[in-house]
Each structure stands twice: as structure tokens, then as C-alpha cells.
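Subject: DUF1840 domain-containing protein structure
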Amino acid sequence: MLVTFKCHAAPDVTMLENLAHYLLGIIGKRLEPRGVITHDELDAAITKLEEAIVSDKKERAEHEGHFHETEDDHAHHEVPVGLAQRAFPFLDMLRAARTEQNDIVWGI
């Protein structure tokens, strides 16, 4: 299932339900059929998501040598996508909404 986040300050962001559930969990929200991130919640949400991205990057750097050409299940160029890449459109929307003091909604 797809979830589309909407905000007047940014283009719609559509993602798979499992990613939406994960990202909303990071910022302290639940994926309900309908929901809102109010402009008052944006500072905390952005901070939490940015901290999670920094943590993910640190963990990935510590395990950087894990993916070698000699492994059977991954070629050297098949490093899994990190949180920074997966969360960027959503984080960009959060920042735009904060700038314009807009809410973000889904399920409408």
C-alpha cells in the first residue's frame, strides 16, 4: 500500500506503507489511516529524523567493509540504500512545511 503525504509548502511525497510507518515512528507518530503533523510538531520531528540519519550513517560507516566483492549475496557496488536516501523527500517536506508554517497531512 502507498501513503501520500501532502503539504501546501512542498510537492506530495508518496512512499510504501512500511517506510511511512518507519519514518513516522522515528518522529513519534503512528501511521493511522489519516493523520497530521502540525507545524508546532515540525521542529521536534526534523530533529529526531536528522538524529536518526546521523546515527544510521555512523553505523553504516562502522560496517563499511562488510560488503566485499567476495561475498556471494552482494556485489561490491550493491551497498543497501541508507536512511538518508530513503528519508530525504520526507525530510525535505518537513523542512519546507516548517519554513512556511504548514501542516503535513496524509490519508485525506
